[in-house]
Amino acid sequence: QRTLAIDREKATLNGLPASMVGQTVGLSLAGQTVGLAHTNDKEPVEIRLRLPVEKRAGLSGVKDVALMSRN
After folding, report:
1. 3-class secondary-structure state, position 5
2. Which long-range contacts (CB under 8 A, 24 or more apart) does 51-57 make?
3. 3-class SS at 12?
4. Considering the entire predicted model, what is its pTM?
5. What is the structure's pLDDT at 1?
6. b vs e for 16-37, b when ≥16 Cβ sit within 10 Å of the residue's Cβ?
7. Phi and psi (nearest 5°) for 40?
8. What is the pLDDT of residues 13-62, one digit of tens each?
9. Cβ atoms 56, 28 nearer than 8 A
10. Are 42 and 27 in contact (CB under 8 A)?
């Protein structure tokens, strides 16, 4: 398990809630199911959005993920 410290002040100054930063990092590393692919198999296949495996090896791969603020 990894621990990530979010600088709340910097996040806020950039118009980003700290929770959004945490959610984006979690999505990048663990992924999130975004749908199901229905094939000829009996069971649908999960479509998962996440970073490529080489970028999920550590937190350093997350540094290239761009976050968009409302500002």
Report:
1. coil
2. 55/28, 56/28, 56/29
3. helix
4. 0.66
5. 67
6. beeeebeeebeebbeeeeeeee
7. -75, -10
8. 989 999 888 888 888 888 899 999 998 878 899 999 988 888 887 777 77
9. yes
10. no
Distance in angstroms (rounded) separating the CA atoms of residues 51 and 71: 26
Distance between CA atoms of residues 68 and 32, nearest Å: 19
d(CA 10, CA 63): 15
Query: Residue 19 and residue 24: Cα distance in Å, rounded?
Result: 9
Token duo for residue 36: 């199901």
CA 19/CA 26 separation, integer angstroms: 10
Single-letter amino acid, residue 20: M
Q: Residue 35: enclosing H or E segment and its boundaries?
A: strand 32-37
Amino acid present at 12: T
| Strand 45-49, strand 32-37: pairing | antiparallel
Distance CA 13, CA 19 (A): 14
